[in-house]
Amino acid sequence: SGKWVKAMEIVKEFEESCRTPISKLKQVADAMTVEMHAGLASEGGSKLKMLITYVDSLPTGNEKGLFYALDLGGTNFRVLRVLLGGKDGGILKQQFKEVSIPPNKMTGSSAELFDYIAAELAKFVAQEEDDFKPTSGRPRELGFTFSFPVMQTSIASGTLLRWTKGFSIDETVGQDVVAELTKALERQGLEMRVSALVNDTVGTLAGGKYANNDVVVSVILGTGSNAAYVERAQAIPKWHGLLPKSGEMVINMEWGNFRSSHLPLTEYDQALDAESLNPGEQIYEKVISGMYLGEIFRRVLCRMAEEAFFGDVVPPKLKEPFILGTPVMSAMHHDTSPDLKVVANNLKDILEISNTSLKMRKVIVQLCDIVATRGARLSAAGLLGILKKMGRDTIKEGEKQKTVIAMDGGLYEHYEEYRNSLENCLKELLGEEVCKTIKIEHSNDGSGIGAALLSASHSQYL
Ligand code: ADP
Ligand code: MG
């Protein structure tokens, strides 16, 4: 029928504008490398902030004692405590609790958000068992993983540049987030020192390095996306401080804000961006990360519905922004049942669309595939950009260099098609020989443990 033809035209056109041939991905990678150089050269020199983290050494394995971490980055936040055994001791014991953040706390006042977090932390601390007790006479110490763009002024202070990922509290912007947290801890009557403020990428890098010494890059693919890596301090022209003893500095790229004319963006991406809380910002994040994939998918499906793909009226639920989360999209994408039962059930339960034909459900799966594949391949291209900047995209004569990338985030962890597509694409980009020297490791909750480790190595009581 005419309706079917029209819907298929929309899918075809969308697919065409999402294409990511290797030649294009290499241009994206080169653009990423160029922007990295520009962001390191001067403050404001690039869309990539390339933030200096004040982490000039990663965990050594000698960290010892009880440390807390608090991880705030998306829809959930986590509190954890770890008991570190010191040299060769490893992690003796760890406990964590995950708490969801009520949406009204994400857009209310600064004090409300931080009070909520501090109260949950206080509850968690109150449940500390005897074998977790801190060294006597010392206040407990905390590593604060805060996954938003922050301009650090030291290892334990930094001002918020802007919110991302659905958070929007104007009065916090420009404030020191450690001071905000510390005030909230005081209001709770909880004695605890924040000894490290780290981005989740930096926490993941630290946690990854503790587990595997070859880790030099970390990437988060969760609600949002970001990357960090170990840079030579001398390769950071905008750094005017003393050169650290290690000669190195961890850089928080804030790669979510990358953009390039080489990115294959569609009319749907443009509309999503224009209607978002942060128009014009985080363009790369908006095509690769978990907060947005399901929403892109919904927008295309909605466009098809306007051409009567689901009958004469557009199903009302389908018009609701963000009603289709990436977990649902991934469940449909992974549907292996012969009649695509998972697709049918989700359409019915979430969108109140019933009576779809198998043929229609197949097109819907294809749509998931287009959106996920583009995101995964573009994140592989970004990774190639980092490897190029580090000189690790080639093999040097006589060198046995190993590069391990620590990856974390719900999208990478749970969206298998995405993960596979990313890993295959990276192989394709690097070639067989180089590929053998590069490994991706899933760093399960490395960011929280990493923050605790950095809080230990930057303890004020050493
Ligand atoms: P955050 O990024 O908020 O710190 P996570 O790393 O846990 O948290 O990532 C959560 C995100 O991962 C979700 O917002 C969602 O986009 C994505 N995600 C979670 N589960 C799945 C899933 N089963 N399939 C695809 N994506 C998922
Ligand atoms: Mg996270």
UniProtKB/TrEMBL annotation:
EC number: 2.7.1.-
Residue intervals of the Hexokinase C-terminal domain: 217-456
Cellular compartments annotated: Mitochondrion outer membrane
EC primary class: transferase
SUPFAM superfamilies according to UniProt: Actin-like ATPase domain
Listed CDD domains: ASKHA_NBD_HK_plant
Keywords for the protein's UniProt record, in alphabetical order: ATP-binding, Glycolysis, Kinase, Membrane, Mitochondrion, Mitochondrion outer membrane, Nucleotide-binding, Signal, Transferase
Superkingdom in the source lineage: Eukaryota
Its membrane topology: Single-pass membrane protein
Domain Hexokinase N-terminal residues, every copy: 11-210
InterPro entries hit by this protein: ATPase_NBD (IPR043129), Hexokinase (IPR001312), Hexokinase_C (IPR022673), Hexokinase_N (IPR022672)
A molecular-function term among this protein's GO annotations: ATP binding
GO biological process, one term: intracellular glucose homeostasis
Main location: mitochondrion
GO cellular component, one term: cytosol
Pathway: Carbohydrate degradation; glycolysis; D-glyceraldehyde 3-phosphate and glycerone phosphate from D-glucose: step 1/4; Carbohydrate metabolism; hexose metabolism
UniProt keyword Oxidoreductase, yes or no: no
PANTHER family membership: HEXOKINASE, HEXOKINASE-1
Family: Belongs to the hexokinase family.
Name the UniProt record assigns to this protein: Phosphotransferase
Species of the source: Gossypium barbadense (Sea Island cotton)
The organism's taxonomic lineage, starting at the top: Eukaryota, Viridiplantae, Streptophyta, Embryophyta, Tracheophyta
